[in-house]
Design a protein that fits this description.
The chain contains 5 helices and no strands. The chain is mainly alpha-helical and 143 residues long. The protein has 3 domains: 54 residues, no CATH class; 37 residues; 31 residues. α1 runs parallel beside α3. The mean pLDDT is 78.
Length: 143
Amino acid sequence: MREGICERMQVHISAKLDGELSEIEAASLSKHLAECSSCAVVALDIRKAAEILRVAPRAEPRATFAPPHRTHLGSRRWALAAAVMATVAVLGATVAQHGLRSQLSAANKTARPAYFDSVDYEQRLIAAARDAHKATRRAVVPA
């Protein structure tokens, strides 16, 4: 249980350095650091590392990166053609799927017997299942 508390407090140490702790969290952290020597050492190490990073000069990148420049007009035409073909394919698939769905739903509505929607039909099924269960119990368990 102590490990979970220490892990949480070590996250709080970093948040405190950034000024992101509430008063209650800061008080809880202070109390924990007074009682836990290992977390106090971690807090000291984190503070030292933060101070070193804050005073260190900013490093500028040594090399710059630029994406390759394409001058060939043909590749742009192919890219545009591919985008148009992909859009047409997606639209075609969407229209086909919508048409198939509407045909399936129409077929399902006409193929389904009306008695499936009847409450009386469901009650008759339940009663038949109950009677079958009672009959099998009588056959298995002698009275």
